[in-house]
Structure prediction request, 153 residues.
Amino acid sequence: MRIAVGSDHRGCQIRSKVIDLLKRLGHEVIDVGTPNMEPVDYPDVAAQVACKVSSGDVDRGVLICGSGLGMCIAANKFAGVRAAPCHDDLTAEMSRRHNDLNVLCLSSDLLGERLVDRMVELWLNTPFEGGRHARRIEKITELEKGLLPKQEG
Prediction:
């Protein structure tokens, strides 16, 4: 799998560890930075990863900032990107199983290293269930196109 990984300055150390894990698991990694602890704006990094996911250049993305929230907000502005911050095993698993999450957002400030490793592996290995969940993902795609849901009554 091709995976783009990016972080702001606060996620720099965890990004390096996530990249090492992904490579050990046999994935191709595209590192979009940041190269050091110098402050950068998280929307710039999120846009690089989300653009690669949206265009199909990569299969998935991982974004890391202090809380995971800012990266998530920015990444979700791109068509076809389904990004969410996950904070435990259950959210990592369900984000794939029910939401077909293609961009995992992580907090560098709130998560321990072992938990991050476990969550990344769960997120990589959990399949999308499809079925009723596929119908819901299609509705999200319609919203991206500006199509409003039908009003009942």
In short: The mean pLDDT is 93. The radius of gyration is 15 Å.
